[in-house]
Amino acid sequence: MTALEHTALVGHGGVHIIEGAGGTRRHALHLVKLVVPVEGPLEIEAEIGRPFEVRAPVLTGAGVAHSIGSPGATVTVFLAPDGLGAGAQAAARGRVLALEGAQAERARAAARDVLRSGLDHAATHELMRTCAGAFARGGPPADRRVLRAMRRLAEQAPGRPALGPLAAAEGLSRSRLSHLFHGAFGHPLRDYVTFLRVMTAIRALMEGTPLAQAALAGGFHDQAHLARAVVATLGRTPGSVARSHFVQATATAGAMVIP
Q1: CA–CA distance, 101 with 161 (Å, rounded to integer)
Q2: What ranges make up the beta strands (E) of the chain?
Q3: Model confidence over 185-229: pLDDT tens digits?
């Protein structure tokens, strides 16, 4: 069975729906991700340990290697750590976390609303706020200089960013910025930059740009280089990303396409 996939954008994050059986290859996304199973369990293989099955919503920390799939519909929320995902990043740092109790029920209810509404903007935004609110006490994961630098990177959607000037704008050296980023998020700044380059290429693919041109837009050497980066970051091939049905985009500066 071929899964139907739908994408919506809200600010720096997004919501993704898979209807029917769908799954990813092993990958390490550099945003916090909450996957809500609407029909059936989730099948997860985390960075450490054997594969396991769970029926609860699952939060994965940024940069945590994993694969995930489900025989039924799932709704996934992507939260940027410089915004709504600050508390979630602190809660899930370096691990995969299954939600319980009231947190889990609120996430399920909001996910069902999104699925019923066909990714209506209001329902999508409410789902993201529900997920962020569940971890509001986590606090900001990094000092404000790092968060401002991350926001500028996202707004630029760079192919090959110059990190030196970004760091200097915050009174930091490039090495100090990298050190602070790693301390806050548990993975290297260069991996987050690669993630942003992948997002640039994916945006182009979803707009119908040929693969070779999309690779150049993201600052990749060629199609093969882009394909490896997409699979490593998202657990999916560029072709499957391009076939996703794009539902909605906001005009918010720096919004990222999340497949």
Answers
A1: 42
A2: 4-10, 13-19, 22-23, 32-37, 42-46, 52-54, 58-60, 66-70, 74-79, 96-98, 245-248
A3: 778 888 888 888 888 888 788 788 999 999 999 999 999 999 999
